[in-house]
Design a protein that fits this description.
The complex is a heterodimer of chains A (411) and B (148).
Chain A (H helix, E strand, L loop, with lengths): L9 H6 L7 E2 L2 E2 L1 E2 L10 H14 L9 H21 L7 E4 L2 H15 L6 E5 L8 H10 L2 E5 L9 H7 L4 E7 L11 H9 L5 E4 L11 H4 L3 E5 L10 E5 L1 H6 L10 E4 L4 E3 L13 H17 L1 H20 L4 E3 L9 E6 L4 H10 L2 E2 L1 E3 L4 H6 L5 E5 L6 H18 L1
Chain B lengths: L2 H4 L2 H8 L12 E7 L4 E10 L2 E10 L2 H14 L4 H16 L6 H4 L15 H15 L2 E4 L5
Parallel strand pairs in B: 1-4
Antiparallel strand pairs in B: 1-2, 2-3
Classes of the chains: A alpha/beta (411), B alpha+beta (148).
Amino acid sequence: MPDSSLLPAIGTLRADFPILGTMARGKPLVYLDSAATSQKPRQVIEAITRYYESENGNIHRGVHYLSERATVLYDETREATRRFINARSTREVIFTRGTTEAINLVAHGFGSAVLRPGDRVLVSTLEHHSNIVPWQLACERSGATLAAIPVLDDGSLDLAAFDGLLDDRVKLVAVTWVSNALGTISPVAELVRRAHARAIPVLLDGAQAAPHIAVDVQAIGCDFFACSGHKMLGPTGVGVLYGTEQWLDRLPPYQGGGDMIDTVTFERTTFAPLPSKFEAGTPDIAAVVAFRAALDYLTTVGLDAIAAHEHALVEEATARLSAIPGVHIIGTATPKAGVVSFTMDCAHPHDIGTVLDSEGIAIRAGHHCAQPLMRRFGVPSTARASFYLYNTAEDVDALVRGVERVRQLFT
Amino acid sequence: MDLGALYQEIILEHNRSPRNHGELPDATGHAHGKNPMCGDEVSVWVRTAGDRVERVTFTGHGCAISRASASMMTQALTGKTRDEALALFQHFHDMVTGAGPADEAALGKLKVFGGVSRFPARVKCASLAWHAFRDALAGGDHDGDPAS
């Protein structure tokens, strides 16, 4: 396995993740569900503890020491996030609870300030429900309609069909960068280029991309980008919305409350400038502060090294699972991020998940919140193993042994 | 963890060769149930004559537990009166949710699903067809998620 050449010694890296040394069902944990949520390195866990033990205060409010300290840490994370995704300015970086809230924020704004009856929002068949349902709600409110770019048999977007769908009715293209269910990496820079040629803005769901791929929002040229801290070694409760200033200025506030105002009277309220306009109320400050530690960790290891490591694991797992009779890989398009989605003739994904769980192996079994995609492939659900920087060749061995055990049990 | 407690041989056998699998054209009641968590779906058809359950069939897609549970349910309910069928529903429900001691005499072969109570993620798999049956028994056509 060429899995360690680009990474720090894998043993050293794994030692940073306390949970990887624990047992599940009496067996050493084999964690292959990072696409659902990643595990956290000690550096992130310690940042949360440190924050609550010595840095906790509310941000942007007080004159006292702790308030100032918390504000500085919060704002430093915003700057670290700006660098991580290469945004032009911290005014373009909004903290949300996660990708879902980030997309809802944009969908809410489009629903009330942009979309009109007859307009169209274009998503794709690869989408997670969180990049479908907010747009359906926005369409219902505005009288716009939703359309989806179809997917080819290998799990990649049908780019010819995409061109055909780009007409004057389309007011936004909202697509995922990496499919959570299949791992397909879409050619997002090319999608943006084609949409922008018709002056159509593009939102990228980066929840599954940001953990694995170096993000440069300026190079890609997208108008919006969303990701979740908890999938990229950070805590739950923090996510990021990137939007160009031009668009964020145009959209109305998502929620009203403290921190997002300039002046409030009972007659009229004026809103704070970006990014505060979209950050009403006290956020999950501890999560934001600890997210900084996650970004630092990913940057230190290096996204390119992580991608190469995962690629080797996915290739190995795909080859060995494919060789097992009755196993079908769903989504064969390349390139792919750290996901192997599969079905078995003899067993339902739930049963695969339960048998693997009894061996201490955590995978996801189900529709992956992507029911239209499951329908496209004619399956109710799949079993999904997802890999991250801390997985090893031994984890692939365990997965393959577990799948063999499923076959023995159910045939 | 003892997988054998969950996947007993009779469950695996019913999963491979489900009984009473198919639609029932002269059904007096039908209900469709789904588990939104995993996408599993089951349709249950019931034909009653007077107070008695004459025939129960099912279709759908789901895991071994839900398929075997539906299959064994159709056998257990055939010939029961309404009250007997509803009592069996309650015994089965109590067993898989761990709500009370299983009445092994009443449950008969169905007691092989007792292990499910130790797998919280699988309780709904075992009970999905039963909830659909209860709705179908009421007569008419019930489409959607049966009350759980």
